Amino acid sequence: METQTLERAYDAFLATAERVVAERDVSRPGDDGGWSAEQVLAHVALVDAATLEAAARIAAGGRAVYDNRVSLDASTIGATIAAAGGAAGLIERIRSQGAALGLLVGSVLSDPELARKVPALLVSGDDVVLDATLTLEEIVGGLAADHLPRHGEQLEAAGA
């Protein structure tokens, strides 16, 4: 799988994250009552981990399932912030997970593995955004094309 788009999406997201962390109180919720920048970072780290889990299961010959609901859970988000030691640790976690994901999909997994069908459930707030079967390549492509850019914009607005 071509990984330049994924790498560019991570680079842009991480540049935004580093700037926001340097300029703002990252624990302050957004003016719209939404997540703080720190919570956005934890959510992204959790989605990255779920994506890595799906890729690793396929690499191990197993069945993958992709479900983002745990990445929306307030207690899981809080525990992830604490485990990473705050925003700086979350940024490094996201950087490392992005590099690992790029390596897995770019160098380790074969085209047939990337084409494996994965049952996917994507939720945003209380809304089911997607309940379908996707290939692993489509899941990773969605991170680069939608998830990372959208949450980069959310970081810009959080605590501004």
E-strand count? 3
Q: How much of the sequence is in beta strands?
A: 5-15%
* Distance between the ends: 37 Å
Specify the helix fraction band: 55-70%
- Provide the residue-averaged pLDDT: 95
| SSE arrangement, N to C | HHEHHHEEH
- Count of DSSP-assigned helices: 6
Dominant shape:
globular
**How do the strands of the widest beta sheet line up side by side?**
1-2-3
**Major sheet characteristics:** 3 strands, mixed
Key terms:
single chain; mainly alpha; 160 residues; three-stranded mixed sheet
SSE layout:
Blueprint: H1 4-23, H2 37-59, E1 66-67, H3 74-84, H4 87-108, H5 111-114, E2 117-124, E3 127-135, H6 136-157
Parallel strand pairs: 1-2
Antiparallel strand pairs: 2-3
Helix pairs in contact: 1-4, 1-6, 2-3, 2-4, 2-6, 3-4
Provide a descriptive summary of the structure in words.
It is a single chain. Strands 1-2-3 form a three-stranded mixed beta sheet. It is globular and about 45 Å long. It is 64% helix and 12% strand. Helix 2 packs parallel to helix 4. The model has no long low-confidence stretch (mean pLDDT 95). It is mainly α and 160 residues long.
